[in-house]
Amino acid sequence: MQLAFYAPMKSPDHPVPSGDRSIARSLVAALGHMGAKVTVPSRLRCRDGKGDTKVQAALQLAAQGEVDRLIPLGQRAGWQAWITYHNYYKAPDLIGPTVSRALGIPYLQVESTRARKRLNGPWAEFARIAEAATDAADLVFYFSTRDAIGLQENARPAQQLIHLRPFLPRSDIPSNAVGDGPMLSVGMMRPGDKLASFQIIADTLSLLADPEWQLDIAGDGPARAEVENLMSPFGSRIRFLGQLETQTLQAAYRNASLMFWPGVNEALGMVYLEAQAAGLPVVAQDRPGMREVLVPAPYPAPDQGPAGLAAVIDDLLAHPSTRRELGQTAQRHVTLNHLMPTAAETLCSGLAQTGVTL
């Protein structure tokens, strides 16, 4: 099976790490796991983060050049389907629908979002293109049940929608005991929602009853100075680990006593899957994206604020046996629902519905 895979938001081999890049890489790995030969035909990044019509026009011109290049390439390579990951109004797929139509092959999307309210305003043209691209898709895999609502409301009659659970690019996970080290927070340090999560963390730490708590923070980014300032009142109880490579981060998970990340407006929160796979109980707020990946359990509502999170943390720090039980439950949840073989089976089934089989 010859497949073309494109991510207009961020290519799988982009040098800057992010959740988008991780998911793109995981999708490529899962497609390969089911026996497909996957080509990344274009690395054109079609993102306009500011709503600049000149930027959008320039990207459309660049995309047309890619289309002209890729149609003959796809004919020679024998692509059997085109898969686009994360088509939305700030980074629409400017390439896939035209190329797949010219080649006469199925066009599929993963994690697309509808944003009809953006059809007016600075992203109007890109929103229109994103909507048209999703309309063109024969099949859309969705991660989030929240996204599914908009997709179902606007799906054309013949379009298929399939729930693809978020997953880790691995086939199994070792059984790990919860460590007794510091708590662990993992997140990019950038303005906006990430910084808002760090603010909640700082506010929560100030309420903890345990006098011996410690927290390691893994991650880096342009807002590091702001994060360091938020954590400065806690002195040596906070340790900044910086941006960690995969193996080092896995070691941090294994050493930690729990994972603490509020998850303000996280779409999915892949770090939650990583933490649970390592056997960590997770402290987070009950938010829509988190429900897609966290083991079902009562989590504090956002309106409970830092006090709700502090109560959970104090209880977990005081009861190691509870941490171990929750960690084991989390590992079972990931093993059953969020590993690559399950995802590959879903992808293979979806492709078969469009007539593409191994």
Tell me the β content.
5-15%
Count of discrete domains? 2
What is the CATH class of the largest domain? Alpha Beta
CATH architecture of the largest domain: 3-Layer(aba) Sandwich
Oligomer: single chain
Radius of gyration, CA atoms, in whole angstroms: 21 Å
Low-confidence stretches are none
Largest sheet: 6 strands, parallel
**Element-level helix/strand string:** EHEHEHEHEHEEHEHEHEHEHHH
Q: So what's the overall shape?
A: globular
Secondary-structure-derived class: alpha/beta
What's the CATH superfamily of the largest domain, by name?
Answer: Glycogen Phosphorylase B
Helix content: 40-55%
What does this protein look like?
By secondary structure, this protein is of the alpha/beta class. It has two domains: 2-170 and 339-353, 3-Layer(aba) Sandwich (Rossmann fold); 183-337, Rossmann fold. The protein has twelve helices and eleven strands. The protein has helices spanning 19-33, 53-77, 96-103, 124-136, 145-154, 193-205, 224-231, 246-255, 270-277, 305-318, 320-337, 340-353, and strands at 2-6, 37-39, 81-85, 107-110, 139-142, 160-163, 183-186, 215-218, 238-242, 259-260, 282-283. The strands form three sheets. Strands 2-1-3-4-5-6 form a six-stranded parallel sheet, sandwiched between helices. Strand 3 (81-85), helix 3 and strand 4 form a beta-alpha-beta unit. It starts with a strand and ends in a 5-residue tail after the last helix. The mean pLDDT is 94. InterPro entries: Glyco_trans_1, Glycosyltransferase_grp1. This is Glycosyl transferase. Pfam families: Glycos_transf_1 (PF00534).
